[in-house]
Amino acid sequence: MPVKWIVALFLAVAAGINYADRAAVSSVFALLKSDLGASDVVLGALGSVFLWGYALSSPAAGYLADRHSRSRIVLLSLLAWSAVMAVTGFAADVTTLIVLRLLLGIVESAYLPAAIALLAEHHGPETRAKAMAVHSIGLNLGVVAGGTIAGYLGDHFGWRPGFWILGGVGVLYGALGWNLVKDGPARKAAERRDAWADLRELVTIPSFLILLAKTMLAGVGVWIFLNWLPLYFRERFGMSLAAAGFAGTFLLQAATVSGIAIGGTVSDQLARRSPRMRMLYQAVCYLVAAPFLLLFLGEVSFGVTAVAVGVFSLFRGMGGANESPTLCDVVPERLRATGLGMMNLGATAAGGMGVLTAGWLKAHIGMEAVFAAIAGLFVIAGGVLLWGYAAFMNRDVERARG
After folding, report:
1. Residue 15: which of 127, 152, 108 has the closest Cα?
2. Cα(150)–Cα(166) distance, integer angstroms
3. Would residue 189 count as lying in a domain?
4. How many Cβ atoms sit within 10 Å of the Cβ of residue 33?
């Protein structure tokens, strides 16, 4: 197997561990309520502090990944977040749990900018979207695995063993990859540049700003689903922790994985005609996805919920497969990780506010109305992408190539 695909597969599994660790806590919310006395607002805060720690650290993570070995940053981040995950299983109170979730967000933030830029080093435009789709599939399958494993262990042994097992697996996998994952042949020596100079250059790229705005809008909706859907299934349909953890992640992620697999293939085919088509394709997918969330305003049976979440996630995945390849088309190679770090900042900062707000709105308007409102965010995101496609993509692609 070519080295570039060995790297892609290794990173896909690492990405799965990354998102499994993020998703595990939401599957045991009910146990945290009973064991540690956590309220709905506190449960929302667990998701928010993780995202805010991730957000605040992401620009620095991207900056470092554009100047140092991306493969080493990936592996150090994997080892660090896995250790934090294992320690979380020993938390004795809500305050300790919140602090550890904040720390988890900080150390996980180093992974994604370095991993995406590392994939771009190994894969040219002809296979880039496929490689990034493989990586995204790993991310999304990790959510299902983390939610299901934590829920099953929570039903039988309490909430702590899930954190110990997931953390231990990550440490072992990180050690395995130390002599396996290397930087790509396309990596150029980093220029000695000021961080503010890089940021100033990024904000002069209109297509990057379009992607940043879209990421913030979509991030609110995605993180609300990831944090609240398992508890919603448990409370609304009386499911066990394992069943709620599985259903609350599988409906989202199975459809998203299918969408990413389709979207990654279509994206590379469209890019052969013109790279700007990636942004148009993403816009159309988001606009098609949004109306299905309005089904939450009707009779909310499990079947209706499955259709709403599943179809929405399918089209969201088809569109989302274009995000990182589009960024690589409009941002110069030496700034890609910095750009990804800024996008992570926007998505997770906005997502943290969304998760916390949803915890408060849960008691006032119900989660069905919150889920339906996400449709509006995706309509706006689709409109922003259409604007970027029509007004900026051609010029920004040519500038990045130059």
Report:
1. 108
2. 9
3. no
4. 15
Burial profile 371-390: b = 16 or more Cβ within 10 angstroms, e = fewer? bbbbbebbbbbbebbbebbe
Tokens 């906005």 belong to residue: 350
Reply yes or no on whether the pLDDT at 143 is more than 70. yes
Look at 103-107, 189-193, 395-399 and tell me which has the smallest mean pLDDT.
189-193
- The domain that holds 27 is classified in CATH as 1.20.1250.20
Q: How far apart are CA 17 and CA 266, in angstroms?
A: 27
DSSP conformation class of 299: -
pLDDT digits (tens, 9 = 90+) for 245-289: 777 767 777 788 888 888 877 887 888 888 889 999 999 999 999
- Is 215 part of a structural domain of the chain? yes
Cβ-Cβ contacts under 8 Å for 350 (sequence gap 6 or more)? 216, 217, 219, 220
Whether 85 and 104 have beta carbons less than 8 Å apart is answered as yes
- Which segments of 66-127 does DSSP mark as H helices, in order? 70-88, 94-108, 111-122
The predicted model scores a pTM of 0.71
Query: Quick one: residue 174, left, alpha or beta (phi over 0 = left, psi -120 to 50 = alpha)?
Result: alpha
Q: Taking a C-beta distance cutoff of 8 angstroms, is the pair 146, 24 a contact? A: yes
% of the chain at pLDDT higher than 90: 29
Indicate the number of domains in the chain. Answer: 1
Q: Give dist(CA 372, CA 388) in Å, integer.
A: 26
